[in-house]
Amino acid sequence: MIEVKDVSKTYKKMSGLKWKKFKALDKINFNIETGKITALLGINGMGKSTVLKAIAGLVKIDSGEILIDGERINIDTYNKLAFVPDIDIHFRGFTIKESIEFMSIFYKNWNSNKACEMLGMFKLDENEIIDNLSKGNIARVKLMLGFCQDAKYILLDEPFSGIDIFKREEFIKTITKHMEEDQAVVITTHEIDEIESLVDDVIIIEEGQVIESFNAEEVREMEGMSILEKMREVYRHE
To answer: A Pfam family for this UniProt protein (predicted)?
Structure first.
């Protein structure tokens, strides 16, 4: 389980000629359970990406704590986490094969068989230079590199950004196919309709705090609402 406890993070930004502080995270609390796909939802600038980066150890928090299976983030917990950001992360000039070889050296749980399978499924040529690929294929490479780390927790930040609807459907099938029972996937996205059948739990973040959390299936069965409809109801009452 990932436990986010009273986590706060403040940034500075220029306002006119002065630096002003703003809270990206404001004593935020939530848990991520294994065996589930959890969506962090909300409008832009409300802390979704910041909290994913904090879980991944890429952002130093000001206060609170984040526990990975009961441990604070340390060198040992990094092998439990795979973070796929919404920006390109490959080395310039690297082929897919070179990127795979690099990852296999630095990640002890790297799954070469899964990488081979996903390359075939995505119809990617390992000798292609990643820079020369389309945006959709670069996104496929990122997803493959993330899932093949065989991490317990996979953090996906806007994985559908700039991807056409047909490739989104392909990605969803990939996520469900390659997720193991003891894993957890955490996803941020604005493509809410696309993840309706994918997500188990939903956490809605507003101004760095959780304003609502629910199980998607329970909301559909008990309230007759989709995730998007439930979000609209939450925001109407805010």
So the answer is: ABC_tran
> For the whole model, what pTM was predicted?
0.89
Average pLDDT value for the chain: 89
Structural contact between residues 122 and 140, judged by C-beta atoms closer than 8 angstroms: yes
What is the per-residue pLDDT across 146-166, written as a single tens digit (0 to 9) for each?
A: 989 999 999 999 887 766 666
> Where does 2-236 sit in CATH, by number?
3.40.50.300
